[in-house]
Design brief:
single chain; alpha+beta; Beta Polymerase, domain 2; 6-stranded mixed sheet; 5 helices; 6 strands; 35% helix
Length: 135
């Protein structure tokens, strides 16, 4: 639950800083997740939801706490290397059930399947347009 709380402590960038699915940051995150074999990848477009804390959520699953951490680490490494972006904040690295990487306008959720089923982020943000991502 700690991961959800950090989202309320900052606001997304608006105007010129808004992203699209074609942005370099967005593509870099998706590519990093795919490279580390993240599964059931979905992006939620939150731009039309006024109370949303980001433009996009990217949610994926990993089969173990080791894979959750590996994907999270690689997302951070890859985005820093390819688009020179570092996260505003990261949470959940120690437990390995759910890691949240906050890039302000894009928030990445890397979860084990049972954690994802419990929190049901896609249902919480059901007004958002979702898109699945495959290799």
């Amino acid at each position: 639950m700690e991961q959800l709380q950090i989202l309320t402590t900052r606001r997304k960038r608006t105007g010129a800083g808004r992203l699209t699915r074609n942005s370099k940051l967005f593509k870099s995150i998706i590519n990093a997740i795919l490279e580390k074999k993240g599964e059931n990848i979905i992006s939620l477009d939150l731009r039309k939801i006024p109370e949303a804390v980001a433009d996009f959520f990217i949610i994926c699953e990993a089969g173990s706490s080791i894979q959750v951490k590996a994907i999270a680490d690689f997302v951070e490494y890859h985005t820093k290397k390819t688009v020179k972006e570092i996260p505003y904040r990261t949470e959940g690295q120690h437990a390995g059930q759910w890691v949240l990487i906050d890039y302000v306008n894009v928030v990445v959720h890397i979860m084990q399947p049972e954690t994802r089923k419990f929190y049901k982020l896609e249902e919480m943000w059901s007004d958002a347009e979702g898109e699945e991502h495959f290799a």
